[in-house]
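Help!! Second protein's tokens look totally different from the first
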Amino acid sequence: MSNPHLPVETLDHILDFLHDSTHALRHCCLVSKSWIPHTRSHLFAEIRFRTAKNLDSWKDTFPDPSTSPACFTKSLSVDCPQAVTAVDAEAGGWLRGFSRVVRFAVASHGFGYLPGGLPISFVPFHGFSPVKYLRVDPLILLTPQLSDLIFSFPLLEDLIVYTGARPVNNGEGPNGPQVVTQLSNSPACTGTLILSREAMAYIARRLLSIPGGIHFRELALTWTDDRQLSLAMAIMEECLDTLEYLNISCISPCASTLHLRRSQYLTPLSSRVEANFDQPLEGDET
């Protein structure tokens, strides 16, 4: 059957049923040319570049960005941003082919630096797609480039910054002047916010500076000292009207933590918010 004519609804139902079977989807691509776009929308919905070798394989398979299946990708994970940045510069905007990504995860296992000691540039990733979910994994350096990346996605709803790296205090970090990117639209910030203790001071300040405010429904915040706690409480206060779930933890006791549960920020939430304290707070009788 060289040109099977099936109603679009029937074809979509068949391929949706097979969405998690890569083997079956590859065979579907061989049935008819008319099946290829529908099949590719599932085959390439999730792409992960773990290494530069993965990236080279993609380039060899799809040498022409204009005909590659990148436009079908909805979830993109990049563990080698330095390699992607180099390819993007070489191909003149190669990354823009991933034009429908809504979930984006980026990590750097080189601690944010190129082999020559220069920091990785995240500029090619700025606003490359209508990203709504952004995850920054361990070992990304907390530099102004990182916060500028976050603020380049005006549709951003969910933000997870779980990094084990310390902020770089080069005069532009949390203890010095920051480079603030001027945006035409602020991130939506209406979904989930997860900040590790290292990211708290650096990212929280930028979030609290958004002109339209933040409206997260779920918060998971961690802190280690009074300064970080004050930022966490400020975030909670900003989200009072929208907050539905709260997960907070204190890695090491600090003075202000003793009265957190009875604070003016948590009292209004007690009747409608599911709160979880990862670790018992010092001085908590319960």
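Here's the second one for comparison:
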Amino acid sequence: MEQEAKQRVRVLHVVRPAVGGMRAHVLQLIVGLRAFGFDSELACPGDSELIHDALEASVVVHPISIVGPLHPLRDPLAISDLVRVIRDRRPSLIHAHGSKAGLLARVAARLSGGVPTIVTVHNQVLYGGISSIVRGVYLRAERWLSRSTARVIAVSEVLRREQVEVFGLPENLVVCIYNGIDPSPFVAGGDRVAARRRLGMPEDAAAFGLAARFAPQKAHVQLVEAAIRVLERDGQAWAVLAGDGPLLETAKTKARASRVRDRILFPGFQTDMPGFLAALDVYCSAAVAEGLGIATIEAMAAGLPVVATAVGGTPEVVEEGVTGLLVPAGRPQALADALSPLLRDAVARKKMGAAGQARALELFSEARMLERTAAVYREALR
């Protein structure tokens, strides 16, 4: 890492309601980029869970009225809040996270005199049931605002291509920087016996699962359908679906209706990911849209093979047949068919897990992410 710069640079991070991977990523940048000479402040909703973490890290926080979806009444208020913060704090650089924050932050930056603005794209925006009206608004807005954007950071190559090919942004405006993790706690691993005991699961059972927010793009109901098929075939297997979110009860209802309900666990939100992952033999995901997947990287760093749907940036993380298995999205049977033989083959699991850990350490480290982000900041400031 570079020596701390003599002259500090103030950066304002703008975030819509942030949960999960985005919340952790923003905090990583805020804290980690101090060593590169960048002092960060945070603008986000006043009820965001990110505020608590930021205050604990001695970060200046500015509550703003930004909401997730497009909102004709509240969005102008959020822009007004941001203009006030920018004029008061006079940052040298603005870094917005997510499409919605990126839209509002760039408008506010233009109204405040043209502060250089970077936008990080974390997820696929135009997927699923998004309306043609909302799609058109995003496309036109991105093309218009690209003229006043210093750089767009995409967390995967597939997102970088989407920004160029779908949104029509200039090729040289968009750069891919993979999300990174501190791998050390995952490599060290958790206590498998203690983790199994906490979950109430036999020590010798084969177990698969994940930790993710129960949101539409994660397709937990399809994962439950796949789990039911696997558990009906194998009377010793268990499924563990950790996390919380709006679709948790829907997934639980699906599981309760099955004959294997007692072996599908929902342990809730996890604060100790290395400890949770120690209980699993295979990490799996049925997502229908994925920017990159921090939890998948963490699982690989912990030495777990991965079975996942080939969506978004996941094929850039999981090397098919080497660190795990990829299946088409929306096909629970295909997911089950990939999981079942891997749960029975401890040798294959160990081999894939070791390859995955090596890949996670090489491509998805926090240090690599911070260095590349600091370089983009310097380019924007020049």
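Reply: Different proteins will give different token patterns, so don't panic. The radius of gyration is 21 Å.
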